[in-house]
Amino acid sequence: MEQAGLGRRVLALTIDWAIALFSAALFYPLQSSALGPSLFRLGVFVFEVALLTSLGGASAGQRVMGLRVLSWPDYLFLRPGPILLRTMLIALVIPAVVTDKDGRGLHDRAARSVVMKVRQKKT
């Protein structure tokens, strides 16, 4: 396995955000831009990503992109606590944008996690 690149991770995040956006649209119209609906969408995103990552090691977007969230440096499954911390830090955006020399964001460093590719391209 190799560490996931930024492109795959951003695309997985986009898929997860789209799922949260359309799930929240069941309660609030897509056009509403008030603070309440926006926070509700963010809450749906955090809930969806944290729950699916806790249960299966990857959110829906990560699964589509062939990624998995594992513990660092032993590459085992994470417990729900660090997954929730990681997801909440992703929702804050800044920790996910600031990376170290290994390409891991501050959210991954705080949760002691890494995103790895589990599916290789066929040649």
What does this structure look like?
The chain has helices at 6-24, 35-56, 60-64, 80-91, 94-97, 106-111, and strands at residues 2-3, 67-71, 113-117. It contains 6 helices and 3 strands; from the N terminus they run βαααβαααβ. It has one domain (2-117). With 123 residues, it is mainly alpha-helical. The model has no long low-confidence stretch (mean pLDDT 88).
Strands side by side in the biggest sheet: 1-3-2
Low-confidence stretches: none
Distance, first to last CA: 16 Å
Averaging pLDDT over every residue, what do you get? 88
Shape: globular
Class based on secondary structure composition and strand pairing: mainly alpha
Total strand count, please?
Answer: 3
Helix % is 55-70%
Helix/strand order, N-terminal first: EHHHEHHHE
Number of domains: 1
List the helices and strands and how they pair.
Layout: E1 2-3, H1 6-24, H2 35-56, H3 60-64, E2 67-71, H4 80-91, H5 94-97, H6 106-111, E3 113-117
Antiparallel strand pairs: 1-3, 2-3
Helix pairs in contact: 1-2, 2-4
Which features does this protein show?
123 residues; three-stranded antiparallel beta sheet
Summarize the structure.
With 123 residues, this protein is mainly α. Helices cover 55% and strands 10% of the residues. The protein has one domain.
